[in-house]
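During the no-cost extension, the postdoctoral fellow (Dr. R.K.) reprocessed legacy sequence entries with the updated structure-token encoder. One reprocessed record is reproduced below for audit purposes.
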Amino acid sequence: IDFIKDKYFSLRLSVTEARQLAHRTANNGMCSPYVTVKLVPGTVGHPEFTKVSTKCQPRTLFPLFDETFDMLVPETLNTDQSFLLFSVKDRGPLGDRLLLGEALVPLSDISQCDQDCVLTDLDQI
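Re-encoded structure tokens follow.
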């Protein structure tokens, strides 16, 4: 396990809520949203490294996720050209998935600290 830890950095990510989500009329004005977060390198030809997903929040336009993830980031990754891709999706009644919105956040915009820092003390993005 120490060999694996030496090759990767850890990124702690907290997804708390979403606001004023769009909805489909087929679902009686509600949606069942969830959020996926992917670590996407900025260079062409490389697939995303890590993907995490929140639990689906059924029938709400103001979901509270309150979930924290630890993502592994390769040491060799160029953080100046890499991004976190946040996607908010709606899980429909038949299992279909509708994209509600996306946002790219450059890794260079994210604060770095050690394991002892508290997430609530850092700037929100």
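The chain is about 5% helix and 40% strand. The chain has a mean pLDDT of 80. The remaining legacy entries will be reprocessed before the final report is submitted.
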